[in-house]
Amino acid sequence: METERSSRNPPPAWPFDLRVFAVMAGLWALCLMVSAMVNLGEFNVVDPIATTFAGVRFHGDDARVVILIEAGIFAAMAHGVFWRRRWGLLLALCYMVQVVMSHLAFVIAYMPIQSEWMNVRAAASQGPALVLITLYLWIRSCDLIFDLPLAGGRSRSVSGATREAVSHGDSGAADMAAMVGGGK
Q: Other C-beta atoms within 10 Å of 157: how many?
């Protein structure tokens, strides 16, 4: 007795580089936790911890809390992607889009302030790398998130629709199914 397993398409294989990404995200979460927890000394005038989230600059204890939250996000991302969960990829994509938009908002908001030009320049120079990382994640995970067929392959539902339309003699439906299926 055959099960339905043989009739279904196997899930797409997860690329090895996404696991490498997950390991790097986990290591980054660890680095963020250590940087937020370790106090480099007693500074009465300035606390050296600062971060930007959603275009807003945080300093001191507020920055430590934001960094710990970011570490938790990276740890969740690493866990989800490493164990091949869709939500891990979605979290990674959403977070990277937020980072890109945050950098853009920071650059736009702080550009008129001359004392922040060094920070604006640093954020602007990080922008292209962040966009490339986000695009990399999108390209590598798009078919995994949306269950798209692999490149060069055809989904069985389209070919089944074509077969069904032809067997019923409906040429209009067969033409439409052929167009959707790539004309094969």
A: 13
> How far, in whole angstroms, is CA 116 from its chain's centroid?
29
- Tens digits of residue pLDDT in 63-79: 999 999 999 999 999 99
Phi first, then psi, for residue 153 (nearest 5°) are -100, 165
- As given in the structure block, the two tokens for residue 23 are 């390991």
- CA atoms lying within 13 Å on the CB side of residue 13: 4
Q: Counting Cβ atoms within 10 Å, is residue 92 exposed (0-12), middle (13-18) or buried (19+)?
A: buried
pTM passes above 0.85: no
Mapping DSSP onto H, E and C, the string for the chain reads CCCHHHCCCCCCCCCHHHHHHHHHHHHHHHHHHHHHHCCCCCCCCCCCCEEEECCEEEEHHHHHHHHHHHHHHHHHHHHHHHCCCHHHHHHHHHHHHHHHHHHHHHHHHHCCCHHHHHHHHHHHHHHHHHHHHHHHHHHHHHHHHHCCCCCCCCCHHHHHHHHHHHHCCCHHHHHHHHHHCCCC
Residue boundaries of the structural domains of the chain: 14-146, 153-184
For residues 135 and 97, give the distance between their C-alpha atoms in angstroms, rounded to a whole number: 10
